[in-house]
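Hi, can you check this record?
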Amino acid sequence: MRNFHFPGRSAVYAKQAMCATSHPLASQSAIDILKQGGNAVDAALAASAVLAVVEPHMTGIGGDCFALLHKPGHALIGLSGVGRAPQAASVDWHVDNNMTEIMQTSPHAVTIPGAIDAWCRLSTDHGRLPLSRVFKDAIDYARNGFPVAPRIAWDWKRFSKKLSVHQKTKAAYLPNGKPPDVGDILMFPELADTLQAIAERGRDAFYAGPIAQDMVETLKSLGGQHVLGDFLVQKSDYVSPIKAAYGELDIYELPPSNQGITALMMFQMLSRLQDRGSEPVCAKRYHVMMEVARLAYSARNHFLSDPDAMEVSHEYLISDELADQLAARIDPEQRVPDLGAIPTPNKSDTVYLAVVDKDGMAISFINSLYSAFGSAITAPKSGVLLHCRGYGFRFTPGHANSIGSRKRPMHTLLPAMAFKNRKPALVFGVMGADFQPTGHIQVITNILDYGLDPQQALDSPRVFFKDNVLSVEEGIPASVVTELEAMGHQVERCVEEPWGGGQLIAIDDKTGALIGASDPRKDGIALGY
C-alpha cells in the first residue's frame, strides 16, 4: 500500500466494469457505453475514437491498431490491424530515386491505415452496439470542440516545426499559427464528417469513395506511390497470440510483425536470472533488465518483419534453448560490452487502453500514428491525419524489414494480457514505440517480483537505453545512477519526455474485484463502477 503522506494516487477499485485510458474524456465515454448496454469491445472502440480526436499527436483513424480479446469460454483472440506498403513499393524504386532513408514526413512513410478496418471488424464480430452510438462522443468532440489537456499541450509545443511541413496540417493543428495552450478549445469538422460517414456506412466509407480518394490524391500530390486499389484491399487479420511463462503468469502477446516477441524473449531470459535486484528501484535490477533488453532488441532488429518474409520462426525466438544460451551471457554484476550475435537457426507514439466489462469480456487495445502526429500529412477534405509506420522500413536488399510490395513493417504496438490458472489476471500495455517491450517487463516485474500494486507499478521510475546509453527518468536516485556507472553503463537523465505511458487492469482471483491504474506520465484516468 502506498504511503499516504506523499503525493500520488490510489489504484481504482470497482466490482462490475473497469476501463483505463490516457485521457479522462475517453475513459468517461467508455464507462457511458458500458452503462448503456455496450460490451468491452464497444467501450474500447468508443474510447479509441475519442482519443483519435482529443489526443491527435498519438493516435488517429489514419493509423494502425492491434487488440487482444478475451471472451469467457473462448480461446484468446488476437487481431492485427496493420497496414501494408503500396503495391508499387520496392527497394529498387527507392534506390533508383536516390533515397537512402524514409523521412517521417514523406508520403513514402505512409502505409495504408489499418485501424478503421480493424475497428469495424471488432464491432461486427464482437460488439453489441452500432457504430453510430459508439462514435457519438468522438463526433461531438470533433464537431463542437474539446479542451486541450496539459500533457497533450506540452507535447504539441515540441512538434510545431513538424506540423509546419505540410500546409493543411499546419492550418488544422497550429491554429493562429501556433500550438494550442492548455484549455484551448479545438474543433476538427472534417474529421467529424469522416467519423460520421464511417459510423453510417462502415469500413467502405473509409477505404472506398471520396474519403479514400482524398487520401490517395493527397499522397500522390506529394510523390507517393499509393493508388485507390491499395486502400480497397486493406484488411485486418485474426492471429494466434503467443505466450511465455513468468512466475505464476502466462504472458500473452501478439506474433510478428508485432514486436510482442521482444517482450517474451525478455521474460524468458529474466526467469533464468535469479540475481536481479531486491528492490524495484536499484542498480542491479535496472542493470540486469537492460542487459536482457539489449539481447532481445538485437534479435528484434535482425529478424523481425512481416511474418511472410521472416526466415526465423517466432517459436525459435522464444524457445527455452535460445533463452538458456542468451541468459548465460549476462553478468549480473557488470555490463558486458559485446553480448554477441543472436544464433541463427536453420531457416524454417501511441495510445493504449484496457477495458473489462461486467460479463468478464476483456480487451487490450492499442492504436497509433507511430511518431508524434504521424507523417504530419493531412488529407484536406476528410481531415485524416496519416501515420508514418513505413518510416521503419529499410532499403537494404535481403534485410528482413526491407520495403516491398504490400509488405507489412515491423510494428512496435503491444497490447498484452497475463493469465493465471487459465483466467485473465492482468490486462495491460505500455506506450512508447521501441520502449514498449521494456515497459511490459518493468510493469509486470514491479507487480510479481516487487509486490507493487497496479498504480505503483505504473508510477515507478523507468530506464531504457538509446545507442548504448542508459536514459533514466528523474525519479531514479543519484546513488542508483552512480552504481550503474560503476557497473560499466554510460548514464544520462531523460532530457525531454519520460518513458512511455501505460494503462493496467488487474482482476483479483479471489474476490473478482477489478483494479484499474493509469500512468501519471499522461493525462489519463482509470474509471469503474
User: Anything to note?
Assistant: The chain has 20 helices and 21 strands. The chain has a mean pLDDT of 94.
